[in-house]
Amino acid sequence: MSTDFQQAREALGARLRELRFAAVGGQLTGPQLAQRLGWPHSKIYKLEGGRQTATSADLRAWADAVGQPDTFDELAARLKGFESHIRSWRRQLAAGHRPVQDAWNIEVVRATTILAWEEAVIPGMLQTADYARAVFLRYANLYGTKQDTDEAVRARMRRQEWLYTTGREFHALVWEPALHALICSPSVLASQLDRLGGMIGMDTVRLGIIPLAASLKIPPANGFWVIDERLVIAEDWHAELWLDDADTVSTYLRTWRTLRESAVYGADAQAVITRAQRAVRPR
Q1: How far apart are CA 57 and CA 44, in angstroms?
Q2: Distance between CA 4 and CA 55 in Å, rounded?
Q3: N or C: which end of the chain has fewer CB within 10 A?
Q4: Cα–Cα distances in angstroms (integers) from residue 126 to residues 3, 86, 110, 195, in the given order
Q5: DSSP letter, residue 202
Q6: For residue 128, what are the CA distances in angstroms to 123, 169, 195?
Q7: Segments making up each domain of the chain, as ranges
Q8: According to the model, what pLDDT value does residue 2 have?
Q9: Residues 244-258 as b or e (16 or more Cβ within 10 Å = b)
Q10: Is the separation of the CB atoms in 84 and 140 below 8 Å?
Q11: C-alpha of 155 from chain center
Q12: CA–CA separation, 255 vs 249, rounded Å?
């Protein structure tokens, strides 16, 4: 999918180059356009070469600078088209984690079935407030973004109300290393594991744990969620991917079902959680 994103970014860059060549009053060189815009010369060629993603403000300024302001709507539509699927963390988190959680909540509230795979953390729908707070703070520090941690935690906790509605089904797969990862303090992890064990047996939750020693048919790569078999939300270090074409959704469903074959449930899943609890609370 990142290849599709790059191709779309390069196509937008090619269109920007066309507009520079067709500027009102005659073709502009890169340095000439940069001077008009007050930008570094390198930015022109990064945008045209697909090595940097334009902002909406960049596109507005470009259209005006080449004397074709009426092309802005077209350029903005191109940008929206690929950014609706590839949501850069840098841009999303500029306003903090709360807006990201709100976007998730909109999708979750209208869903009836959610499949989740997490290899490194406890799924957000099953997190305690303290565990969620630790995760948000880690990412805010990594990206250097706004720390609206308490608001983000409240938004995530509201989403969990979904689990207590009849007719909903949350199918979660978690790799055992996530139960041991000290992304938070040991005491917070211990409380999180208590909550996780308490979710086993809920009629709206089907929790599978893949033991570290389990035979795996595929590598346990990045986490992802499938919502109502219509939308996949996957995470990478640079962006969150929102994927809704049928072939891609089918691929992720097949991946989830393949991972599920290695999972244990019920008392066996509880035994794996208990093992993690003993590790974090040594006697």
Answers
A1: 14
A2: 19
A3: C
A4: 33, 25, 18, 8
A5: -
A6: 10, 19, 7
A7: 2-84, 88-280
A8: 47
A9: eeeebbeebeebbee
A10: no
A11: 16
A12: 10
CA within 13 Å, CB half, 71 = 21
Tokens linked to 196: 């996780």
Q: What is the dihedral of CA 216, 218, 222, 223, to 10 degrees?
A: -60
pLDDT in single tens digits along all 283 residues of the chain: 345 667 788 889 999 999 999 999 999 999 999 999 999 999 999 999 988 888 889 999 999 999 999 999 999 888 877 666 777 787 788 888 998 899 899 999 999 999 999 999 999 999 999 999 999 999 999 988 888 999 999 999 999 999 999 999 999 999 999 999 999 999 999 999 999 999 999 999 999 999 999 999 999 989 999 999 999 999 988 888 888 878 889 999 999 999 999 999 999 999 999 999 999 987 6
Q: What is the pLDDT of residue 1?
A: 39
- Whether the domain at 2-84 and the domain at 88-280 fall into the same CATH topology: no
What Rg value do the Cα atoms of the chain yield, rounded?
23
Q: Is 243 within 8 Å of 237 (Cβ atoms)?
A: no
Specify the residue for token string 């009836």.
112
- Count of all residues that appear for the chain in the document: 283
Task: Specify the DSSP class assigned to residue 76.
Answer: H
**CATH ID of 2-84, from 3.40.50.2300, 3.30.1330.40, 1.10.260.40, 3.90.226.10:** 1.10.260.40
